[in-house]
Design brief:
CATH class: Mainly Beta
Structural class: mainly beta
CATH architecture: Single Sheet
Strand order of the largest sheet: 2-1-3
Number of domains: 1
Strand content: 15-25%
Helix content: under 10%
Oligomer: single chain
CATH topology: Rubrerythrin, domain 2
Mean pLDDT: 95
Radius of gyration: 10 Å
Length: 55
């Protein structure tokens, strides 16, 4: 499972946790999140997220 971070507000979408408040169940992979989904914190588009590298 991966984590994706918003460029603008640093909100993190964690695939393992999903985003239940936005109707995305735990375990939902980023590629399966709807293309019209927006960041719940700042309204940025899915294109404004980058995968976090784990060191």
């Amino acid at each position: 499972m991966k984590k994706w971070q918003c460029f603008f507000c640093s909100y993190i979408y964690d695939e393992a946790l999903g985003a239940p408040a936005e109707g995305i169940p735990a375990g939902t992979r980023w590629e399966d999140v709807s293309e019209d989904w927006i960041c719940p914190e700042c309204g940025a588009t899915k294109e404004d997220f980058a995968m976090l590298e784990i060191a």
